[in-house]
């Protein structure tokens, strides 16, 4: 996924990507990936797609894997876009 400060993805034709600046001066890359697989007949719980996030900090090498925001086993799923924004919530 991330090696030598280069992001690589297995199949870019099934990928929707969105870079986002976050409030603590870091950046994230949020992406949705569809697997386009017919493996659901053999294993109906196999992930067919999901939404993932990578946290980046300027000038530092990322050493951890992407975090999973959501995964689904629904086949035929297609992500067309990702919209991200900051929502201010008054808690406490």
Explained architecture:
- The chain has one domain (2-72).
- The protein contains no helices and 6 strands.
- It has strands spanning 2-3, 6-7, 15-21, 27-34, 49-56, 67-72.
- A 4-stranded antiparallel β-sheet has the order 3-4-5-6, with no helix packed on it. It has a two-stranded antiparallel ribbon with strand order 1-2.
- The relative contact order is 0.25.
- The model has no long low-confidence stretch (mean pLDDT 75).
Short description:
By secondary structure, the protein is mostly beta strands.
Short descriptors:
mainly beta, two-stranded antiparallel sheet, globular, 92 residues, four-stranded antiparallel beta sheet, 0% helix
Unreliable runs: none
List the helices and strands in order.
EEEEEE
Shape: globular
Give the number of helices: 0
Domains (count):
1
Q: Count the strands?
A: 6
Whole-number mean pLDDT: 75
First-last Cα distance: 38 Å
The major beta sheet can be summarized as: 4 strands, antiparallel
Report the β-strand fraction as a percent range: 35-45%
In terms of quaternary structure, the protein is single chain
Structural class based on helices, strands and sheet pairing: mainly beta
Gyration radius (Cα, Å) is: 15 Å
- The largest beta-sheet arranges its strands as 3-4-5-6
What is the helix fraction of residues, given as a range?
under 10%
């Amino acid at each position: 996924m991330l090696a030598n400060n280069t992001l690589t993805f297995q199949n870019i034709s099934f990928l929707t990507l969105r870079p986002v600046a976050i409030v603590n001066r870091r950046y994230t890359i949020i992406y949705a990936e569809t697997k386009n697989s017919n493996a659901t007949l053999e294993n109906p719980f196999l992930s067919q797609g999901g939404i993932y996030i990578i946290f980046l900090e300027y000038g530092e090498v990322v050493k951890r894997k992407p975090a999973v925001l959501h995964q689904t086993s629904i086949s035929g799923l297609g992500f067309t876009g990702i919209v991200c924004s900051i929502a201010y919530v008054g808690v406490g």
